[in-house]
Amino acid sequence: MNYEVKALRADAVVALLLDAADEGDARAQARSQGYTVLAIKARQSWQAWSWRRSAPFPLVLFSQELLALLNAGLTVVEAIETLAEKESRPEARKTLRQIITDLYEGRTLSHALQRFPADFPPLYVSTVRASERTGDLHEAMRRYIAYQTQVDFVRKKVVSASIYPLLLIGAGALVTAFLMAYVVPRFSRIYEDIGTDLPLMSRLLLQWGQLMQTHAWLILALCVGLLAGAVYAARQPGTRAWLMRRLWAIPAIGVRMRIYQLARFYRTLGMLLAGGIPVVQGLRMVADLLPPGLRADLDRAALMINEGRAISQAMEAHRLATPVALRLLRVGERTGRMAEMMERIADFHDEEMARWVDWFTRLFEPLLMALIGLMIGGIVVLMYLPIFELAGSLQ
């Protein structure tokens, strides 16, 4: 469920939109991001079904264009003014204008950005704030662009691998519905005129076809209702949490999901460390990237690190490091290149994840095609089976 949160941070009042299980969860999420909660109210349920949604702020494109303008010699204010002048979307232009106003009032860029948490996540704001201490905004933008590009690459890899199976399932369902609702009932009338005894499976198939033809609109309404209910349930945090727990319980899928989460965790933490953010503070900032089960382990690992224990030791003790990650963390501790080693951990596991997705897709797609073919072929065979038996008896 969505909650609208009015919060205070660094003497600025901001409005947050959080997806939480209840009001307490929304308050905890806001506090974990460093906000002081002033008021919370549940968003009206009809807004969750609204099809008209404002386009999200193009954060990566903004960062790329800002980096190009900064490299061209423009100041931050001049660069953002240029981006505001070329921006065609009213919402994004309004955001940029308000950022420019804050900059002219003497506030820092990070302070201006944190007023818009829906457009600039805390991770992005923290990266900019760290660069303000070192005076290297160019490098911060470059690191974030590389980070987000890699994260999007892995996500798009998974999404693109699921498109073809979904198309196969949709096409198979449509062909099956056409056969059952249109073709099978016509065969049933033919067999009624012949008056021959039908095999049990063929008789059941024809009865189902007649049922679907007789109650076609009722079945269609039921399918639409089930689809709408599934979409609504999928939007609820409780349903998503339950589904994630079930997926994590599947050994093969759960291991890969854990590796994906850890790769994103190490990539984000490595980017923050490269920007000069202390490791304990960085761990608190990236905690929301992990599922609740791993988040509790991360809190205990952060406590160990805060007590002076080695990062590799804390991660190993709380099952937050794979064997490869553990070795690279120890190398980073010996060489002092911890940020680089964390990025290498993420690169290794991202490549491993991409290989597994390719392997799973190549295995799953033929199996799915075979299953759909058997289902459609079975319907066709059962329709023609009485004709085959009749032809055999005539011979």
Task: For this entry, give a set of tags.
about 400 residues; mainly alpha; Receptor-associated Protein; 3 domains; 3-stranded antiparallel beta sheet; 17 helices; 3 strands; about 5% strand
Strand-residue proportion: 5-15%
CATH topology of the largest domain: Receptor-associated Protein
Give the class-level CATH name of the largest domain.
Mainly Alpha
DSSP E strands, number? 3
N-to-C order of helices and strands: EEHEHHHHHHHHHHHHHHHH
What count of structural domains?
3
Taking pLDDT < 50 over at least 5 consecutive residues as the criterion, the unreliable ranges are 45-53
Name the CATH superfamily classification of the largest domain.
Type II secretion system (T2SS), domain F
CATH architecture of the largest domain: Up-down Bundle
